[in-house]
Amino acid sequence: MIEVTDLTKKFQDKKTYITALKHVSFSVESGEVVGLLGENGAGKTTLLRAIATLVQPTEGVIRVANYDTLKNPNEIKKKIGVLFGGETGLYNRLTARENLEYFGALYNLSQHETKVRIDELSRMFGMRDYLDRKVEGFSKGMRQKLAIARTIIHQPDIILFDEPTTGLDITAANVFRQLVHQLKQQGKTIIFSSHIMEEVQMLCDSVAMIHKGELIYHGSIETLYEEEKSEDLNYIFMSNLVRGS
Amino acid sequence: MFFTMFIKELKDSFRDRRTLLLTVVLPLIMMSALVFYYESLISDSSDSETINLAVNVNMDSQLKELFSSNNFNVIESSNPESLLKDGEVQAGVMSESQFVEKINSHKQPSITVMLRDEFSQDSSVSTIVMSALQQYKQSIVNERLLNANLEREMINPFQIEQTEISETNAGMALLGTLIPLILVLAIGIGAGPSAADLFAGEKEKKTMEALLMTPVNRFTIIMSKWLTISAIGSISGVVTLIVVALEIQFMTEHLKDALSNTANIGLIVVIITAITIIYAMFVASILMVTSIMAKTIKESQSYSTPIMMLAIFPVMVLTSVGVNELEFHHFAIPMFNIFSSLKELLLGTIDWEHIVITLGSNIIAILIIFGVGRMMFLKDKWVMN
Fold first, then answer.
1. Overall number of domains in chain B
2. pTM of the predicted protein model
3. Which of A8, B24, B341, B380 suits a disulfide with A59, CB 3.0-4.6 Å?
4. Please, which pLDDT band fits residue B206 given cuts at 50, 70 and 90?
5. CA distances from A183 to A109, A140, A148, A157, A166 (A)
């Protein structure tokens, strides 16, 4: 479903180049849920942005659903849903319904298709009571549900979440975890970056660890436990960082 | 798709109370204040006024008669200076005792004219008082020349006649400065918040990333946002013009007369509206680029504020330039040309060459600035924080 081959991304800062990703290669199968682990500034967001076609690779190739991110970005955008942060990407002065209708239109859904999807999503996320209220009065939890609904309005096969629970309270974070579980059951391919190891342990089939732009581990959680002879992901992550430094 | 985005952007912008306030309410208040200020300026200069004049008690009756016309209300006082300081009179005149007798015996007596301060309306008071005294002085000189069997022409070799050949109406000349100034302010202030919100604001709230993740191409995104800013700027400008027209028509006297005496007023209004809309598009292009450059709304505002201050700079240069002194560059430089064109149009001159230069130069500037904005918007550096 997703194939990243020898990906390098460099950003120019005045006269110097900063390498955000160094020769990263990995693949994600259809229906797999991958947890992306790494410190702040390790390159997680850049990797997700590159997969989402928002930044172009300096070197290497990314193929999503058999499309090249450089050659067919629009085809990929139709199949992918991205949420950067837990409750972002919403227009506060529009109602929840208007936000969903707007993104439905941007993804070329017909008015009827959008209406049906809004009904499904509002039922699925329990949003019916506040569907016609302006977003500016919403709680964090309500915003987060709406942000996820907006991300999947066009029924993408692949969903990317960048630190979705950062800054959320326990209740809102649990709502997110339940929703990811539901999406997993629907067979969606999901990659999400996180600092919370329990969340990754609970939801993911495999993990990818990034340190200073390099992929230092990618594989199933079970294999990782066997290799490290521990089931404490927090300890394993820190050990890998020390080895990677 | 483009229309859907444009309508959504407009709806979102007008739900922002700041936009509504700055687009409609602020121009209304600014225009009202300035229209009434200019109306009072014209009234002050055209209405004849009665001057309260304090004179000393022992002033000669012949001299007092000088000030007995309709222009003066003479108040005798032992201390005219204190009346002037208290603000009870606008001017004071103090003459020596036996003033006329001294003149008749060629002793050159003195007379003192006192005014409050030179920056107030007393400058016109001074002219009226001094004019009355000059006339009196001239009559004495004439009488002396006659007694000496000399003709007046001996000391007055020629006469000066001053004739105004300009058809310029004072009221319209004032409007020619007032309307473009307010238009420029209204368009900048009206479009500013939306411009900051539509690019820098979307980056700040991360809605830009969500937008870029949709299959809509970036040209459609930037075009719909630019058109939204242009539309809001145009609405501010047109609202301003409507407010001016209504206030002049129903709430002023002198400015209304000035406007009704202008030929082809209907055509002039249409041309002014067209120039206003093109200028709003030009401003929208600049504001768009400043917003793309910024990462936050605050940063965007700190870039756009000096540019909008610069936009009112031409009024300072063009105030001293007469309508017949306007040259090619006054119409070819965007920002200058709205002032030049409106100055000319409001004085009743429709010069198609100047109008085409104004519209053409603005359109060229819009294309260049929009092109720069589009190039920036295609680069990841400018669209993502």
1. 2
2. 0.78
3. A8
4. confident
5. 20, 20, 11, 10, 20
